[in-house]
Amino acid sequence: MEALLRAEHLKKQFHRNADGKHAVNDVSFEIMPGECLGLIGESGSGKSTIAKILTGIESAAEGNLYFEGNPILGKHVRKDSRKNMQMIFQNPKSSLNPKMTIGQNLDDALRYYEKIPKTERKVQCEQILERVHLPKEYLLRYPDQLSDGECQRICIARALLRHPALLICDEATSALDVSVQKEIVELLQEVQREEQMALLFISHDLALVSHVCSRIIVLSHGEIIEHFQS
């Protein structure tokens, strides 16, 4: 089976690293279709930088990156090359537009992906809320009227509108209370099974990652130091 995502010898250095150390140094790994891969490391280990390189938020100084068999690094890469890759961030409220209702946030994302009538978009927004176990009445609320856990459910819903092949979760539960964290993890596992998508779960919590993922990569100072089955 061909890897869904393949990273080869990725390197990234920020100018603030005056000592010459790399934020990401010669990192290579694969994510297979439908699998859940864990990426763990302490703060500053480079794990979030890797996520940003995968999604195109940051560029890599060196290396190759392939998604669905196509190269996705470089100046001449198609703009839609990452259309089947979505990311969920640590702070859900900062990921949503506070001046827009939940319905508008979701509709805005849907309009970006699909050229479909407004009435059909509304139906899809209602259906996607059901997928993350929220009532459709939430479409009329604003992010500051929701809890952090509810906002993270909205962010998951927004990502699912694309039906991604790969969902990247960058510390997606670390800002939440323990009880809410458990609910979000269970939701992610549920939608992964239903969508049959791959999941890259990034965290500093080994126990949590071991519970969620079948395979784990340990990162330290920008380098992979261990790789094992959970």
TrEMBL record:
Domain of life: Bacteria
UniProtKB keywords: ATP-binding, Nucleotide-binding, Transport
PANTHER family xref list: D,D-DIPEPTIDE TRANSPORT ATP-BINDING PROTEIN DDPF-RELATED, TRANSPORT ATP-BINDING PROTEIN
Protein name, entry field: ABC transporter ATP-binding protein
UniProt source species: Roseburia inulinivorans
Family: Belongs to the ABC transporter superfamily.
Keyword Nucleotide-binding recorded: yes
InterPro entries documented for this protein: AAA+_ATPase, ABC_transp_ATP-bind, ABC_transporter-like_ATP-bd, P-loop_NTPase
GO molecular function, one term: ATP hydrolysis activity
GO biological processes: transmembrane transport
Domain ABC transporter stretches: 5-229
Alphabetical list of Pfam families matching this protein: ABC_tran
Record SMART domains: AAA
Lineage, highest ranks first: Bacteria, Bacillati, Bacillota, Clostridia, Lachnospirales
